[in-house]
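[step 3/7] fold_predict: job queued, chain A
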Amino acid sequence: MTKAEFLEKVSEDERIGSKKAAADAVDAVLEAITDTLTGGGEVNFTGFGKFHVAMRSERQGVNPRTGERITIAGGKVPRSRPVPR
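[step 4/7] structure written:
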């Protein structure tokens, strides 16, 4: 499902009312999650899932143009984990 399809689905809910309101609500939720993860926190929606920041370690890769082996830097990446059924 794309963001546009998701917004269409949310805008059909009688509590939202319009596509503009749906877009504003979805953008606000995504910004809040992003801000929390950027600050090192985690977001837990009971019954849905958890968003958190994980550390990715340094790894080896290959430059596709030259075939040269390169080291890809590690760093922080966002992750989500759904609630198990």
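[step 5/7] annotate
The helical segments are 3-11, 19-38.
The mean pLDDT is 94.
exit 0
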